Automatic annotation (TrEMBL):
UniProt-listed PANTHER family: PHYTOENE DEHYDROGENASE, PYRIDINE NUCLEOTIDE-DISULFIDE OXIDOREDUCTASE DOMAIN-CONTAINING PROTEIN 2
Regions that span the bilayer: none
Assembly: Interacts with COX5B; this interaction may contribute to localize PYROXD2 to the inner face of the inner mitochondrial membrane.
Protein's name in the database: Pyridine nucleotide-disulfide oxidoreductase domain-containing protein 2
Entry keywords, A to Z: Oxidoreductase
Residue ranges of every copy of the Amine oxidase domain listed in the record: 22-508
Domain of life: Bacteria
One MF term in the entry's GO annotations: oxidoreductase activity
Alphabetized InterPro entries for the sequence: Amino_oxidase, FAD/NAD-bd_sf
Function (record text): Probable oxidoreductase that may play a role as regulator of mitochondrial function.
Length: 580
């Protein structure tokens, strides 16, 4: 769809929405010399990747709180460190406290984690390594597609087949997370803990086919080149968006906040500008929507412009499955049951998971289907002020809770009516893991699925802008007619998480949309891939091939495990897990 773009316009490009993806698009366009205007409805940039002073004097990552998916290529190309971004890690990646009072810490170092799992189940410790290598192999085959136009699903399957890994494709895309984990592990606590990563913003539970992909989606996370690791952003997740905004401005982009766009103006099938909520019109050659696909097509485009068949397909995009946050200001850190003192420890440094239980996840799925709440909640938490003193005054701490598998709409009532009562229920569960908190919560702010829809402008509060099941992935994301970032309205593009390769603070969607649109200006119908061609073995570092070969035999697995659990060989193990 090449475009000549000859008419005089106010801007070359308008980006609707300053979520992190919209800002990534703005950066790449501005760096290509385009005159870019970003229009954001909220008073602050970032969308779901934002830091806000929710209670005067303290700041929280309101929505996303873990940084692990942001593509390193984007961090580097857009010089985000130069524009103020500081990503960091604590010593513990995650801490899980089970319902029987036992706990588990996942450390940055593989050997420490393996020895910790040995305390739970020796066989599972060795299975954990095997699982990690399989996951890394899966990520290795899919990652080359991330910074690229979406491949057809058949192309992805063909790449797995060519690499002799069809079984791996099936495992991580078709299976339920329950079936996936049952293939590898024995211990119910470990399986429950790992199940959580397949429950993020889903409509369903551990037995729902396809939830293994939600697990796999998080697998291409890396931190400083280390596979499967994640960290935090100093200043909260908004620091990512602020760095992106600073970079875009540096290259000439104009960003206006508190400026909601009402409509995309379409003239004879071509987008020519936007009408703001105040009625004013701004014209541009290319328009990008960072909003989710339903909002971008059904609300921003006037009725009658799109073919009825497409409207029906967009209406059918699956946006069920949401989550909620409760932000707490506390004057004492949670004293989790195994650590009965108020001092900060590794349990407070990373992601905290309280009461993971596969039965609880199954019950939550049932409740979600009925539009109600389960009897108990699995709670995730982050206490970031422990490692970042810019977030709360001395003596106080920020604590953020997350609850997954929530219905967007409640049966017979509303989130507005239930919000406070629901938060009370969640806090009662929290007190069973950290009883001291009952007396130490100074204030709270609740963000429900309904708030995600109305305040953060995410349809149905689906944090990925659309479910991440195989029917809505790759060349079918969000639907086949809208894959590749273009829409049937000429010069109107999608650049948010509803596009390939999906949700999370990744930036890939914004990058790919910009490349496609720049290609359209240049008259290139299918721009060259931004990353290398996804040929499995060419993109696989030699150390991973060696690990793969070792792990393919029983004796090799034993040797690998013995090496991986040795602190003295830590550097070698870390090197083997490097993805770049
Ligand atoms: C509660 C929650 C927790 C999450 N946790 C994590 C996590 O820990 N780690 C992680 O990696 N990911 C997490 N995610 C997912 C991740 O945050 C999102 O997938 C990602 O931030 C979406 O980015 P985006 O730029 O595509 O869209 P958004 O961030 O949704 O940005 C879209 C922007 O468009 C604006 N907009 C919409 N309509 C208009 C309009 N008409 N006019 C002007 N502006 C408009 C919105 O205000 C918004 O700023 C979480 C998301 C949520 C909601």
């Amino acid at each position: 769809m090449p475009s000549t773009l000859t008419t005089a316009m106010d801007y070359d490009a308008i980006v609707i929405g300053a979520g992190h993806n919209g800002l990534v698009t703005a950066n790449y366009l501005a760096r290509a010399g385009r005159r870019v205007l970003v229009l954001e409805a909220r008073p602050i940039v970032g969308g779901a990747c934002v830091t806000e002073e929710l209670i005067p004097g303290s700041k929280w990552s309101s929505c996303a709180f873990i940084a692990g998916l942001l593509r390193p290529e984007i961090i580097e190309e857009l010089e985000l460190q130069r524009f103020g971004l500081d990503l960091y890690q604590g010593d513990a990646l995650s801490f899980s406290l089970f319902r029987d009072g036992t706990s588990f810490t996942m450390w940055k170092e593989t050997d420490r984690t393996l020895r910790e799992i040995e305390k739970i189940n020796k066989k599972d410790a060795s299975a954990f390594l095997d699982f990690g290598v399989r996951l890394q192999r899966f990520a290795g085959l899919v990652t080359p597609y991330l910074l690229a136009s979406p491949p057809e699903r058949s192309e992805v399957l063909a790449a797995f087949e060519a690499a002799g890994e069809q079984n791996l494709f099936d495992e991580f895309t078709l299976l339920s997370v329950r079936d996936l984990l049952d293939r590898y592990f024995e211990d119910e606590r470990l399986k429950s803990m790992l199940t959580f990563f397949g429950m993020v913003s889903i409509f369903g539970g551990p037995s729902t086919p396809g939830t293994a992909y939600t697990y796999g989606h998080h697998s291409w996370g890396e931190f400083n080149g280390n596979f499967g690791q994640f960290g935090l952003a100093r200043g909260g997740m908004g620091a990512i968006s602020e760095a992106l905004a600073a970079g875009a401005r540096h290259h000439g982009a104009v960003i206006r906040t508190s400026t909601p766009v009402d409509t995309v103006i379409v003239d004879r099938g071509t987008a020519t500008g936007v009408r703001l909520a105040d009625g004013s019109v701004i014209t541009a050659h290319q328009i990008f929507s960072n909003a989710d696909p339903k909002r971008s097509l059904l609300r921003l485009i006037e009725p009658g412009v799109l073919p009825p068949g497409l409207v029906r397909d967009v209406e059918n995009i699956d946006t069920r499955g949401s989550m909620a946050r409760i932000h707490l200001l506390v004057d004492e850190l949670p004293q989790y049951l195994p650590f009965p003192d108020a001092n900060a420890g590794p349990q407070h440094h990373g992601h905290q998971l309280l009461g993971p239980s596969r039965e609880a996840f199954e019950e939550a799925a049932e409740a979600q289907r009925r539009g109600t709440f389960p009897s108990t909640f699995v709670i995730e938490a982050v206490t970031q002020s422990v490692t970042d003193d810019s977030l709360a005054p001395a003596g106080l701490h920020t604590m953020t809770l997350g609850i997954q598998q929530l219905p967007s709409e409640l049966t017979g009532t509303t989130w507005a009516a239930e919000k406070e009562k629901w938060a009370d229920l969640v806090l009662e569960d929290l007190f069973s893991y950290a009883p001291n908190l009952r007396e130490h919560i100074l204030a709270r702010v609740i963000i429900t699925p309904d708030d995600l829809d109305s305040e953060y402008l995410i349809t149905d509060g689906n944090i990925f802008h659309g479910s991440m099941m195989l029917d809505q992935l790759f060349g079918a994301r969000p639907i086949p007619e809208l894959a590749n970032y273009r829409t049937p309205v000429r010069n109107y593009y999608l650049c948010g998480s509803g596009t390939h390769p999906g949700g999370g603070v990744m930036g890939a969607n914004g990058h790919n949309a910009a490349k496609v649109a720049l290609g359209d200006i240049a008259g290139v119908t299918r721009p060259a891939r931004a990353a290398g061609a996804p040929t499995a073995n060419r993109t696989r570092p030699w150390q991973q091939r060696l690990v793969g070969a070792l792990m393919s035999t029983r004796s090799g697995r034993w040797v690998s495990y013995q090496a991986a659990r040795q602190p003295a060989l830590r550097k070698i193990t870390a090197y083997a897990a490097r993805v770049r």
